[in-house]
Amino acid sequence: MTDHAHDFDFLVGKWRVHHRRLKERLANNHQWEEFAGTCNMWLTMNGHGTVDDNFIDIPSGGCRATAAAAHSGRRGARSCRFASPSVG
Q: What is the reported pTM?
């Protein structure tokens, strides 16, 4: 079994990021909205997991979000969960 600890070390740190989303979801719309943001990522569980704290500068007003990810040795897959107090 491959040890996936530290597979995402290259993402650790503070980053300026670029986001895009469909202007209308589930409406056969192909127009994208683009906006900036920041991400601060760190390792957890001795390199088997990551947590990131995000600021997303959505044109209608910025929001904060967090994500946590971990590698499952049994399933051989990475699982990620995203949470935000406001969905924009």
A: 0.75
Cα distance between residue 12 and residue 8, in whole Å: 7
The type of residue at 79 is S
| Consecutive H or E run containing 32 | strand 32-44
List the chain pLDDT tens, one digit each, 88 residues: 577 788 889 999 999 999 998 888 888 888 999 999 999 999 999 888 999 999 999 888 889 999 999 987 777 788 889 898 875 4
| CA–CA gap between residue 59 and residue 4 (Å, rounded) | 37
Local structure of residue 7 (DSSP, 8 states) = T
